[in-house]
């Protein structure tokens, strides 16, 4: 688990295809690596990756086909800047929100505009994720815990303050930039709980929480 508070910005120093999977070499001079061991997890642009080798200047991690299908990692060019965060411990302040590092899909930056010292971004998420994104709720974008300012269907608005601009890769986003998205894990579990016994049926039919189901459960009148 992670908090979505970026600890350092690293760079992609190398990438290598390995039997259909991908091996990444991350250079992370700003990330304290003295307590990192083989097998530890590091959120790499929001993707939980396992350290398979320590290089002295960073780490090496393998990326499975499943992860490549749901994230932007396969398209990152060598030299790309990357948000980094080590896994939280029981003594880690939870300054953001609970983040699993299991990316749900890829979003697209639609608009960027300056607003005083902040930057406002309009982001479009995959339609299947729209129901998990709430006004003033939390969302993880390339590993950074951010607050949703407004929602319109699959599109949502973010306000990025100067500190976040300086400490993450977000300042470099432009219209067309692809970003990793992870919705709030609480929303996913809540959906399953609301489905109750219908969760088994849902997995076969593809149906989810509907207005009729909410009414049946007493949430609507």
Q: What would you note in describing this structure?
A:
Residues 1-97, 98-194 form the Lumazine-binding domain. Catalyzes the dismutation of two molecules of 6,7-dimethyl-8-ribityllumazine, resulting in the formation of riboflavin and 5-amino-6-(D-ribitylamino)uracil. It catalyses: 2 6,7-dimethyl-8-(1-D-ribityl)lumazine + H(+) = 5-amino-6-(D-ribitylamino)uracil + riboflavin. It comes from Sedimenticola selenatireducens. Its EC number is 2.5.1.9. The protein contains five helices and twelve strands. Among the domains are: 8-86, Elongation Factor Tu (Ef-tu), domain 3 (Beta Barrel), CATH 2.40.30; 186-216, no CATH class. The strands form two sheets. Strands 1-2-5-4-3-6 form a six-stranded antiparallel beta barrel. Strands 7-8-11-10-9-12 form a six-stranded antiparallel beta barrel. Strand 7 (105-115) and strand 8 form a beta hairpin. The model has no long low-confidence stretch (mean pLDDT 90). The radius of gyration is 18 Å and the shape is globular. By secondary structure, the protein is α+β, with helices and mostly antiparallel strands. 17% of the residues lie in helices and 38% in strands.
């Amino acid at each position: 688990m992670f908090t979505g508070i970026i600890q350092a910005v690293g760079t992609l120093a190398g990438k290598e295809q390995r039997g259909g999977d991908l091996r990444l070499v991350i250079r992370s001079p700003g990330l304290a690596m003295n307590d990192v061991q083989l097998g530890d997890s590091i959120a790499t642009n929001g993707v939980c990756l396992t350290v398979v080798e320590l290089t002295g200047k960073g780490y090496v991690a393998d990326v499975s086909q499943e992860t490549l299908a749901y994230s932007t990692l396969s398209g990152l060019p060598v030299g790309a800047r990357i948000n980094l965060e080590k896994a939280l411990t029981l003594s880690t302040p939870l300054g953001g929100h609970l983040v699993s590092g299991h990316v749900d899909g890829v979003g697209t930056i639609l608009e960027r505009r300056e607003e005083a010292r902040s930057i406002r971004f309009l982001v479009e998420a995959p339609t299947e994720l729209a129901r998990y994104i709430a006004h003033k709720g939390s969302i993880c974008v390339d590993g950074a815990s951010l607050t949703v300012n407004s929602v319109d269907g699959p599109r949502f608005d973010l306000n990025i303050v100067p500190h976040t601009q300086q400490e993450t890769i977000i300042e470099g986003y432009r219209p067309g930039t692809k970003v990793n998205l992870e919705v709030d894990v609480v929303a996913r579990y809540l959906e399953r709980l609301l489905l109750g016994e219908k969760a088994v049926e849902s997995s076969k039919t593809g149906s989810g929480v509907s207005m009729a189901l909410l009414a049946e459960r007493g949430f609507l009148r």
